[in-house]
Amino acid sequence: MRMCCFETAAADLETMLLLLVKGGFYHAGQVCVSVQRVYAEAAIAEELAQRMATMAKTLKVGDPADPETDRVAEWVDEVVAAGAKLLCGGHKISAALNAPTVLLNPPDDITISQNEVFGPLVCVYSYDTIEEAISRANALPFSFQASVMTRSIDKALVAYKHLNAAAVMVNDHTAFRVDWMPFAGLKQSG
């Protein structure tokens, strides 16, 4: 059951509306974790539904081959102009596909560093201490799964304890998942 539940006193309606609309319509709602059902107290249910409908009408929907609906290329251009080093990709390989892209050291405050990309792009950020890396990772508005790759059990445990994530993988990528493990986002993640 994919659902969200609201209580009038506990809900930050402005923030929740953005998350509900995103969660309901990204990937055209064809994702196992998309918002499908919203339960709201009677006192706010109609207002919530009306406002969601108003926001949904403004969504940009279209063919991914249309440059107006492709934000990945735009974000890459922005981050390269801001000083990130483009190591590969950064261009379209067909009307609907972006080349796999790797960027080195994008500024922390730029669009690509502050948002989930949902495109074939990886940013690599250098750091001096594990504490700095954890602090920078935790500063983002999104938090889902994290990973630490190390031969040091002590560093793995520090990362596990301090990373703000629903799950922390040790020596595996963040897309790893088995059915019996937690699977949920934190903060503004879906």
Short description:
The chain is of the alpha/beta class. The protein contains 6 helices and 11 strands. It has a 3-stranded mixed β-sheet with strand order 3-6-7, covered by helices on one side. A two-stranded parallel ribbon has the order 1-2. A two-stranded antiparallel ribbon has the order 4-5.
CATH class of the largest domain: Alpha Beta
Helix content: 25-40%
Q: Please state the CA-atom Rg, rounded to the nearest Å.
A: 19 Å
Q: Total number of helical segments? A: 6
Beta percentage is 15-25%
- CATH fold-type name of the largest domain: Aldehyde Dehydrogenase, Chain A, domain 2
Structure description:
With 190 residues, this protein is an alpha/beta fold. It folds into 2 domains: 3-57, no CATH class; 67-187, Aldehyde Dehydrogenase, Chain A, domain 2 (3-Layer(aba) Sandwich), CATH 3.40.309.10. The chain is 33% helix and 19% strand. The chain has helices at 13-25, 42-57, 72-81, 111-114, 130-138, 153-162; strands at 3-6, 37-40, 85-88, 92-94, 97-98, 101-104, 121-124, 142-143, 145-148, 167-170, 186-187. It is globular and about 55 Å long. It starts with a strand and ends with a strand. 12% of the residues are buried.
Indicate the topology:
Elements: E1 3-6, H1 13-25, E2 37-40, H2 42-57, H3 72-81, E3 85-88, E4 92-94, E5 97-98, E6 101-104, H4 111-114, E7 121-124, H5 130-138, E8 142-143, E9 145-148, H6 153-162, E10 167-170, E11 186-187
Parallel strand pairs: 1-2, 6-7, 9-10
Antiparallel strand pairs: 3-6, 4-5, 8-11
